[in-house]
Amino acid sequence: MKFGSTLLLILTLLFSSCVGEQNFFAGKGPQSHEIIKLWWTLFGIASFVTVTVSFFLVRGALKKNRDDSVNDEALGKGLVYGLIGTISLLLVIIFSTLRLGHPPEYSEGNFELKVVGKMWWWQAHYYDPEGNYLFETANEIVIPTGRPIRIKLVSDTVIHSFWVPALAGKVDMLPGRENFLVVKADEEGVFRGQCAEFCGTQHALMSFYVKAVSEDQFSKWKEKQGKKYKRIKSHALGERVFINSGCVKCHTIRGLGVATDAKYYGPDLTHFGSRSHIAAATYPNNKGHLGGWILDPQGAKPGNYMPATPLSGKELNALLEFLEALK
Ligand SMILES: [Cu+2]
Prior knowledge:
Layout: H1 3-15, H2 30-62, H3 72-101, E1 113-117, E2 122-127, E3 133-138, E4 140-144, E5 149-155, E6 160-163, E7 171-173, E8 179-183, E9 189-195, E10 207-213, H4 215-226, H5 236-244, H6 247-250, E11 277-278, E12 283-284, H7 287-295, H8 297-300, H9 313-324
Parallel strand pairs: 1-5, 4-10
Antiparallel strand pairs: 1-2, 2-3, 5-8, 6-7, 6-9, 9-10, 11-12
The structure holds copper (II) ion.
Copper (II) ion (CU) is lined by residues 117, 120, 160, 195, 199, 203, 206.
């Protein structure tokens, strides 16, 4: 590779994380503001150390007529100052990091949302503020703006890490352990999240979206998501294809009246048509991508736990219409 293209590649890789909805520098919540402050503090300290050490190194190297005899007193003084300086800088780093690791909002309280890390998607369970179970959804989390919301994070298989860079730091999702995260979005918006702990072949394609909306819209959204599927006559063929092609084995549509096999659990599809993306934010939710996904999920996201389903053009079309109508 030529020097120019190599440089371009390096610069692209370096700055590719600095734009878009997954940018931690564009923090939109109190916790992310603290993280940005900590980042700049650490960057400042590291830069100061680098510049200082380089300065003395270069000065020493360039010195003419060097006198190599050892001055014990000066050496001793230098060592003491150096040690005091190093230890105080390390203490600053340790305490500012520890302080962020235990933000005050981690206190007790009801959680309104439980997210389960799956291989390789996110299952979300909503609760009302009193702790009563409401409904299940997947890969798209809606939160109210302007107040903290407590999220319980767990996993039932392998370790994942829940990370929405623009809102908060990473929190691990561990089998057999419950972790909590309190997030607060200062303003409305759509933020992208990503699994931040290598969890298998599709770790990189395990993303999700967080939508921060007004409290009013949040209530309306919850009310809608809690509703069951109501049969629509014009989608009778699509519904039949969904039931007869084995989709119901892994996917629940509440109100359809067919039980899902807990062994093969996939995302709840009751309100699938209201989601903006499919397969853990891998593709936009439209008929083209959805059709490709159903016919060849392994080509779209190799190694995921959904098998391919061969369908005729007519069946596929009816199925797509049916799924997209699940608003
Ligand atoms: Cu993961």
